[in-house]
Amino acid sequence: MTALTLSTAAAPGLRADAIVIGVAKGADGPSVAPGAEAVDKAYDGRLAGVLETLGASGAEGEVTKLPAPAGFKAPVVVAVGLGAEPEKDAGFDAEALRRAAGAAARALAGAKKAAFALPLAEAADAGVVAEGVLLGAYSFDAYKESAKDGKDTKGARSKGNGKAPLAEAALLGGKPRDKAFKAAVERAAAVAEELNRARDLVNTPPNDLNPEAFAAVAQAAAKEHGIKVQVLDEKALVKGGYGGILGVGAGSASGPRLVKLSYTSSKAKKSLAFVGKGITYDSGGISLKPAGHNETMKCDMAGAAAVFAAVVAAARLGLEVNVTGWLALAENMPSGSATRPGDVLRMYSGKTVEVLNTDAEGRLVLADALWAASQEKPDAIIDVATLTGAMMLALGSRTYGIMANDDAFRSAVHEAAEESGEPAWPMPLPEHLRKGMDSPTADIANMGERMGGGLVAGLFLREFVGEGITWAHLDIAGPAFNEGGPFGYTPKGGTGTAVRTLVRVAELTAAGELG
């Protein structure tokens, strides 16, 4: 991962491959953002005009490169757009800084060192810039031939695309001896590293990441960070009566797993349970997905990846809250042993479910894990899942939906998401949709009305949350996997959505500000 340093050095004398500055979109054209005063001075105060001549406007994510002025040890200045110029005496929005830093880091792939002269008015700004750099520099090239030995055909270091991620970033204007600045950057590094680990898992091909392999990754990380781990294999799941997880995994040659990760703090006064859907590949089962809908289904374990990363991040940050992660892992495949439409499963809770569609499998594995989590009586449960296409139709590809059995908790989770830079939107759980899941054969069916399918799925999950336990459901089907081009600090492929929200919820709970 990109190395980070806080630096008080002046931009002209710093040895680097590039100096990154911010540019805002003003009413009369681009304006140079705070932090770049020394650079602007070297252009005789005409930098904004030069950038405008080159076509720069200051629009968010816009990247413009130009030769550095005489006397600078860095050869290039990289101007990155911050979006609209803030009102007088107001600072730049945290997400604007995060995205700008990410866009610049992506543009600097192949560079050994870059100096970021972005606005750092306070320690929090250093944290978001650091986070943007580390997330924007992410690259997944493990399966590309040229990345195997780190060399391309010309002998230069390669990461599949011929360029390694930015190796080092110095944050100018940072205060290396200031405890708040240091803490902000250290937090950003811990969260970003775990979020990037989640991205790696989502991007890993399903022939290399089945439930057993995912469980092994979790076990290794747990050992490294002092987290207690328990893995239930097929025999243990049968003995325990986990009918939902077993039913989904019945058609695969790779058996299902339920992984429990427990981080505990001696100073904790509250406990949280995070539950993640971990379908390592979703063919749809007997209700087979059509061509065009299954090529990216390696990403159907993104919820479990987010939960895993969040628990490890909480441990690394030493948060004073107990956090338990439940990873419900299975591969949904068609075969002679697969669950059929019309089958009835007896869940871990004892309830029976009529399976009307085997492609509505995520709610089945989550139901067992939610009930297991409920038995420990946590103060709150949050589940995370790439659950429904309906949520994508409702909110698009960059925003996830939040449902809950408590309006105040739903609002708190929404605020944590927005504060973390993860677009989300509160969604209802209309009671009238519950009747559509009535079954003449079982206690409930796994399908209901087609319209409002994302809300129906939320109502199904609510049935498996223990009485009196506060619960929220994050449907991340849209933003979990970016099929378009990269933007800001978001790469193509796995995004790590929900990791930062979960970590922020844990931080607020530890501080007594939530729940």
Rounded radius of gyration (Å): 24 Å
Strand content: 15-25%
Structural class: alpha/beta
Number of helical runs?
A: 14
pLDDT averaged over residues:
95
The number of strands is: 20
Main sheet properties: 8 strands, mixed
Could you give the distance between the termini? 35 Å
Strands in their spatial order, largest beta sheet = 8-9-11-10-14-18-15-16
Low-pLDDT sequence parts? 150-160
- Which geometry do the CA atoms define? elongated
Helical proportion, percent range: 25-40%
Structural notes for this entry:
This protein is 32% helix and 21% strand. By secondary structure, the chain is of the alpha/beta class. Strands 8-9-11-10-14-18-15-16 form an eight-stranded mixed beta sheet, with helices on both faces. Strands 1, 2, 3, 4, 5, 6 and 7 form a seven-stranded mixed beta sheet that branches. A hairpin with a 2-residue loop joins strand 2 and strand 3. It starts with a strand and ends in a 5-residue tail after the last helix.
Features:
515 residues; alpha/beta; eight-stranded mixed β-sheet; seven-stranded mixed β-sheet; 14 helices; 20 strands; 32% helix; 21% strand; elongated
